[in-house]
Inverse folding.
């Protein structure tokens, strides 16, 4: 039965294949060539990039690790006490010798008054010591006169005693009087030496009192803190009434004395860098405008990590990050002599530097 045979069985038939497209015929060999030459392509690209990097280093140097630096002056009082006045504000432009803050001056004025009184007392005591020297010298002259009289009487009595006209008791009294006169001279000379030493002591005390007065006057003058140089006042937290300790910085003055850029340049460019060389600078605070600068100095030494105290003044430039080791970089100082007057620099701002060799 034909109907039953078709109902109880499956019959597979081959579906005829579609005709191949012309593009697929060329794509398969290309993919195969890329698969076979992928290592060569990667190595060739890396080689081209390395050659471009090395050749670029022969004609140009670039650094994006640049900081704007100024001469900062930490302002700290030389004497301690509460702040009586603070007439400046953050970002204020100040001139040299302009008052910045004042420490309460009354305790130091009292110290000056006490030192003045002590100096006056020492001067009077030195004058009294000088009078004691004069008195001791007069006592010596008086004792010498007495000795002269005693010796004359002794000579006379001894002559009369040998002739029998003077009792021996009178001769012995004359000898005793002459000895007493000599002893008085020695005592007067000792008193004169003591008086001279006392004059030296009083002179030293007077000098010490004068030095104490000078120190008190110096401390009083240092209660008024002025700007050492012209510049701008950095932000600060000090307020009137706060206690200030001697030597504790309260203000920071960003001076106009030494504006410069410090660029960390890779060591591969050091051989072609020279002081006075022209560089092009793009300031982060003044974008989209190139400025001409000049290399002022190149650091001859750096440290990879902080070392002992004797090397603490050498710049520290770490040569590595967390995942790859980098070439060593050396700080290069750059000045901007032709900076326009309207361009304002900021300490700690960033910049980028390009040098053509």
């Amino acid at each position: 039965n034909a109907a039953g045979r078709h109902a109880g069985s499956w019959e597979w038939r081959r579906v005829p294949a579609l005709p191949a497209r012309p593009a697929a015929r060329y794509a398969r060999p290309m993919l195969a060539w890329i698969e076979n030459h992928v290592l060569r392509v990667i190595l060739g690209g890396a080689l081209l990039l390395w050659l471009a990097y090395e050749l670029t280093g022969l004609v140009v140097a670039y650094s994006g690790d640049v900081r704007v630096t100024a001469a900062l002056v930490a302002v700290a009082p030389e004497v301690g006490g509460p702040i009586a006045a603070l007439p400046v504000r953050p970002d204020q432009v100040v001139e040299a010798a302009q008052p910045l803050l004042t420490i309460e001056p009354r305790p130091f004025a009292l110290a000056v008054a006490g030192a003045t009184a002590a100096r006056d007392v020492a001067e009077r005591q030195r004058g009294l010591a000088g009078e004691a020297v004069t008195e001791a010298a007069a006592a010596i002259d008086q004792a010498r006169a007495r000795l002269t009289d005693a010796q004359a009487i002794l000579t006379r009595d001894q002559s009369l005693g040998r002739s029998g006209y003077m009792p021996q008791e009178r001769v012995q009294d004359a000898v005793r009087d002459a000895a007493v006169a000599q002893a008085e001279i020695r005592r007067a000379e000792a008193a004169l030496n003591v008086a001279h030493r006392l004059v030296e002591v009083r002179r030293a005390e007077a000098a010490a009192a004068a030095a104490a007065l000078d120190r008190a006057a110096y401390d009083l003058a240092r209660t008024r803190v002025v700007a050492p140089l012209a510049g701008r006042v950095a932000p600060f937290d000090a307020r009137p009434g706060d206690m200030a300790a001697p030597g504790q910085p309260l203000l920071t003055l960003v001076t106009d004395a030494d504006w410069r850029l410090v660029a960390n340049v890779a060591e591969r460019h050091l051989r072609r860098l020279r002081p006075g060389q022209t560089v092009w600078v793009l300031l982060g605070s003044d974008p989209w405008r190139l400025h001409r600068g000049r290399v002022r100095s190149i650091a001859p030494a750096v440290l990879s990590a902080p070392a002992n105290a004797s090397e603490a003044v050498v710049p520290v430039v770490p040569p590595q990050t967390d995942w790859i080791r980098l070439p060593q970089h050396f700080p290069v100082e750059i000045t901007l002599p032709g900076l326009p007057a309207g361009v304002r620099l900021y300490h700690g701002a960033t910049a980028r530097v390009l040098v053509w060799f």
Remarks:
- Confidence is low (pLDDT under 50) at residues 1-10.
- The two ends are 99 Å apart (CA to CA).
- Residues 106-163 form the longest helix (58 residues).
